[in-house]
Amino acid sequence: MSPGPAGQPLDVLVIGGGQAGLAMGYHLAQRGLHFQIVDVAAEVGAVWRSRWDSLRAFTPAQYDNLPGLAFPAAPDTYPGKDDVADYLQAYAAQFELPVRPGTRVTSLTRSNAGYLARAGAEAWEARQVVVATGPFQVPFIPPIANELDPGVRQLHSVEYRNPATMPPGRLLVVGAANSGCQIAEELSATHRVELAAGRRLPAVPQRALGRDVWWWASLLGLDRVTVGSRLGRRLAGRDQVIGGGPRRLARRHGVRIRPRATGATGRTVRFADGAAADFDAVVWATGFTTDHSWIDVPGVRDERGGILHQRGVTPSPGLYVLGLTWQHTRTSALLGWVCNDAAFLAEQIASHTTERADPGPAARTAAASPGVQEAS
Predict the structure, then answer these.
(1) φ, ψ dihedrals at 314, nearest 5°
(2) H or E segment at 261?
(3) What does the alpha-carbon distance between residue 138 and residue 80 come to, in Å, rounded to a whole number?
(4) What is the pLDDT of residues 11-57, one digit of tens each?
(5) What angle is formed at CA 72 by the lines to CA 71 and CA 76, rounded to 5 degrees?
(6) Which of 30, 127, 135, 311 is at a distance of 20 to 30 A from 368, taking alpha carbons?
(7) Residue 175 clears pLDDT 50, i.e. is over it
């Protein structure tokens, strides 16, 4: 067991040490709470550092700040993945945040003190817990991948690094969101590339009239549209590609656009329009699923295994989530905006801490009157 001071439970355990967990840690430290951040990765920033070589943030540097420390890059530049990883490491060091790397929490249950988290032979007891593991947890590859011949190289977008690591020949990228479009564009310079778009996503230019798309979004208040609003309910189910979408890839880079991939046999992939083609490699830019099966707390998971919450506050007192897509706004999961939800949850945590510390007038009266007992 890893308790708090003098054998007491932690005030807060933060599970996840990415940008959401670090922002949460900053606000908890500002309030003088005793907390611990645990993360499965070997070091802070490892998730960013592990992505493909040319990956750049699609938000310019002036929108990439975590609370208390500006991102060290010129405005209107787009940080690379290693730049972001370096910034997160510097952030944790700057504020001396207690991050425990290499720690995979395998169960979270209720306890007398609040919650008990186990990670192998270790355990942490905490009055409150923030699950900040984010939306990008388990790479998803559709079942049709199992029907392809072993000679066809297959990898998820998280495993892709650069064109030099791909075999020669005809390549298929499945998935036409931001990752799929960026990878297809890069590969098109050295390979014959096709892109399977399961559904049509609107493409928004990165810059318009000399301004970044996020400048316009902030000006119009689109970054603050809440999930519960009428506009938010419409937008929450609509992803957008920022930058070059499939049409631009076809027009400028010679990428052939295919409809949804529906099946596979040997080296052949079949598509929704009845066409089929042979490929030498497939990059599955098909997104991620979340895994909250390790959270064994009554009443917090829906029928699909997702976490029930209102702006990150779950039905179980003292249990919160942070960093989810559309947790509260369109920007809830983004580097420079996750601090808004973190600040909100910090207030909830502080209020809950005060309530627990103050037993209330009835309890204080009973404590002052030792002869008074509850009726049996």
Answers:
(1) -85, 170
(2) strand 261-265
(3) 23
(4) 999 999 999 999 999 999 999 999 999 999 999 999 999 999 999 99
(5) 75
(6) 127
(7) yes
Q: Are 112 and 42 in contact (CB under 8 A)?
A: no
DSSP class of 65:
P
197: which 2 tokens?
A: 């778009």
Phi/psi for 96 (5° steps) reads 50, 50
Task: Quote the DSSP letter at residue 8.
Answer: P
Provide the pLDDT for residue 361: 45
pLDDT at 82 > cutoff 80: yes
CA 165 to chain centre: 27
Distance (Å, whole) CA 279 – CA 266: 10
Cα-Cα-Cα-Cα torsion 289, 307, 292, 101, nearest 10 degrees, comes to 100
| Residue type for position 347 | E
CA distance 182 to 160: 12
Q: How far apart are CA 268 and CA 262, in angstroms?
A: 11
**pTM for the whole structure:** 0.89
Contacts of 371 (CB under 8 A, 6+ apart): none
The Cα–Cα gap between 17 and 100 comes to 8
Give the residue from 317, 308, 315, 329 showing the smallest Cα distance to 353: 317
The residue with tokens 């497939």 is 282
Name the β-bridge partners of 268.
265, 278
pLDDT higher for 202 or 208? Answer: 208
Q: What is the pLDDT of residue 27?
A: 98
2 pLDDT more than 80: no
Collapsed DSSP state (helix, strand, coil) of residue 236: coil
How is the chain split among helix, strand and coil, in percent rounded to 5?
30, 25, 45
* Closest to 184 (Cα-Cα) out of 152, 157, 206, 165: 157
Q: Which residues contact 296 (CB under 8 A, 6 or more apart)?
A: 107, 108, 109
